[in-house]
Write a structure and sequence with these properties.
The complex is a heterodimer of chains A (117) and B (116).
Chain A: E1 3-5, E2 10-14, E3 19-21, E4 24-26, E5 32-39, E6 46-52, E7 60-61, E8 64-69, E9 74-79, E10 88-96, E11 105-107, E12 111-116
Chain B: E1 4-7, E2 10-13, E3 19-25, E4 32-38, E5 44-51, E6 57-58, E7 67-73, E8 76-81, E9 90-97, E10 105-107, E11 111-115
Parallel strand pairs in B: 2-11
Antiparallel strand pairs in B: 1-3, 3-8, 4-5, 4-9, 5-6, 7-8, 9-10, 9-11
Classes of the chains: A mainly beta (117), B mainly beta (116).
């Protein structure tokens, strides 16, 4: 079975600074996707970034980038130039990539990020 | 594109009544829909997975007679909480997937259920 662990329940960062959220996972699968989702106070789940396990290059989306270490099963999220609107819960998630997979997501427990002015 | 709606956004009901929550994929046909429950300050807990025209697959510990799921079409799934009790009060989120380019899940905005 796959597990996703986020070891930081809460973090804070000053506006314009950089913060890194940690995520580790455990799986015996070789093909999978990893995701970071943001859940702001509105509680709408928003996809921040996606990484395919077969890609060695780390995914980036504007101010958001990941450090994907496949051998270490680590998938951290770096937020640069933090903005007040980045304040949210952040969930790391795993999805198996296989024929017949329905796309079940396995979520970590989340990290509450507060960006301070 | 890939918008998922949920209705209602919040509902308050009396103990013992049933409540239906709708989840619709507005601009795509969803191969699979998922229902999650989220307690305050916690992660999403998968309740069940449903495919159009098939019986839903429930996660261990989820009472299928209490949480009835109907997936009538490729764009609509409903969750009915039967004989609701205060402990069923929670935030319910649905998501829908499409096959291409991969099984990305698109989330609805959620429904807050309060049972008095």
């Amino acid at each position: 079975a796959q597990t996703v662990t986020q070891s930081q329940p809460e973090m804070s960062v000053q506006e314009a600074e950089t913060v890194t959220l940690s995520c580790t996972y455990d799986t015996s699968e070789s093909n999978y996707y990893l995701f970071w989702y943001k859940q702001p106070p509105s509680r709408q789940m928003i996809l921040v970034i996606r990484q395919e396990a077969y890609k060695q290059q780390n995914a980036t989306e504007n101010r958001f980038s990941v450090n994907f270490q496949k051998a270490a099963k680590s998938f951290s999220l770096k937020i640069s130039d933090s903005q007040l609107g980045d304040t949210a819960m952040y969930f790391c998630a795993f999805m198996k990539q296989s024929r017949g997979s329905q796309g079940n997501l396995i979520f970590g427990k989340g990290t509450k990020l507060s960006v301070k002015p | 594109g890939a918008v998922v709606s949920q209705h209602p956004s919040r509902v308050i009901c009396k103990s013992g009544t049933s409540v239906k929550i709708e989840c619709r994929s507005l601009d795509f046909q969803a191969t699979t829909m998922f229902w999650y429950r989220q307690f305050p300050k916690q992660s999403l807990m998968l309740m069940a997975t449903s495919n159009e025209g098939s019986k839903a697959t429930y996660e261990q510990g989820v009472e299928k007679d209490k949480f009835l799921i109907n997936h009538a079409s490729l764009t609509l799934s409903t969750l009915t909480v039967t004989s609701a009790h205060p402990e069923d009060s929670s935030f319910y989120i649905c998501s829908a997937t499409r096959d291409y380019p991969y099984n990305e899940q698109f989330f609805g905005p959620g429904t807050r259920l309060t049972v008095l």
